[in-house]
Design brief:
Blueprint (H helix, E strand, L loop, with lengths): L1 E15 L4 E15 L3 E5 L6 H8 L7 E6 L2 E2 L5 H8 L2 E4 L3 H4 L6 H12 L4 H14 L5 H5 L8 H13 L5 E5 L7 H17 L3 E6 L2 H7 L2 E6 L2 E7 H6 L4 H8 L39 H5 L5 E4 L2 E3 L8
Parallel strand pairs: 3-8, 3-9, 6-7, 7-8
Antiparallel strand pairs: 1-2, 1-4, 4-5, 9-10, 10-12, 11-12
Helix pairs in contact: 4-5, 5-7, 7-8
The protein binds iron/sulfur cluster.
Amino acid sequence: MSLVKLDNVVMEFELGTFLSKTRIRAVDRVSIDIGRGEIYGLVGESGSGKSTLGRVSLRLYKPTKGRVIFDGIDITDLPEGKLRKLRKRMQLIPQDPFSSINPLQTIGEALIEPLLVHVDISREEAIEKAKEILEEVGLTPAEEFLTRKPHQLSGGQLQRVAIARAMLLKPDYIVADEPTSNLDASIRASIVKLILEFQRRFNQALLFISHDIALVSLIASRIGVMYLGQLVEEGPAKSIIREPLHPYTKALISAIPLSEELGVERVVLKGEIGNIANPPKGCRLHPRCPFAMDICRREEPPMIEVTPGRKVKCWLYVKR
Ligand code: SF4
């Protein structure tokens, strides 16, 4: 059974001033589910809607349409008071740790706060737990880190604090939103390893969001590919990386260094990702796709299941 289920989710935002408003559909009718203990990789360029979808799955955003189910409970319309009880079971590891931790708090305060809110525990016990988790994420001596402020830590150290804060309450579901993209290449692997260690230990459902399909294919059991707010392909990670179906997935794989060794058809897209405020009609990829046909410009392709668990949204695979 799925721990997290997103059913036909739409997320719209209103942007602009009171004189001129634009409605942007950042996520458009996306359905995914993630099982307990499963790592689901969500990939796509920036602007594809993957971070927004991650936040909807945590009910940090209330979807405009569709349902969000967590552990069998429909949390789509749950008021904040009731959601708060579930919050400790679902946590976010953000892309930018500097924005997630209050710059005026010490690291100790940032770690103790969620414990005091969600667990029946004394301040002394919370401090001990904060020390333990700092040691587990490799920030030692823990006593020293407890008293530091965020600006006294490097980006990598602060991301370790963000991971510690997310894992403190042993959540069942984690969204890791591009957790290494702001970090030096030299420390990215150790941060991913740390997240995976906790994931295994607590048997967590993990939604790992990244633009790096090569990295995601190494750690996820299933991959979903997003383009301009829509899911365009989904399937087992091994099959997506070895036999991608959608031209967009093929283009992402073609951009991996040494991708020719995978034997995947090389696809290069024209231009840049389109404008989410005014997406192309028909298939959203058609202005960039080297295989575009007349129907692609006129009609949106359906998402079809080509084999069990393997889905693609492209006219090339629709029998007509
Ligand atoms: Fe390309 Fe058409 Fe497939 Fe869209 S539906 S990805 S334009 S071939």
